[in-house]
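User: I'm curious whether this sequence folds into something compact or stays loose and floppy. Could you predict its structure so I can see for myself?
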Amino acid sequence: PPRILTLEEPVLHLEHCIAFAVHGNPAPTLHWLHNGQVLRETEIIHMEFYQQGEVSEGCLLFNKPTHYNNGNYTIVATNQLGSANQTIKGHFLEKPFPGSISVYLILTPKFLCLDSKAFSFQVSIAVGLAAFACVLLVVLFIMINKYGRRSKFGMKG
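Assistant: Here's the prediction. I'll summarize afterward.
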């Protein structure tokens, strides 16, 4: 039956890598679990390994993992004679804004300001800046039309 020789914590090379080595004859099939659920391989998370005799060595690779990828990773090796598994904890990034729920992703006026006075002040500032920008554009347009005419002494086309 297969036997897991090594399973190492994630290390950053070009990508994050959970290195493993599995021994088995016949060669076992390998798959991964993340927090007990089957891990689907994608472009972001994929396994690369090579077979050298009865030993399979490789990495579970992560391309720029986030806090969503934190958790327990289990390698499962199976062949006709049995199966073996081993789990390791993978920690890549801290959760942003620890202790808070994910409401910070929803941008509502109530979230942006704690009270209505502050919100109305922010709105009045935004409206004032927009009005100033409009007036500036109108003045520039008038100045360009009045003083931006062609010179009498310019080259004729």
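Summary: The longest strand covers residues 71-79. Confidence is low (pLDDT under 50) at residues 103-113.
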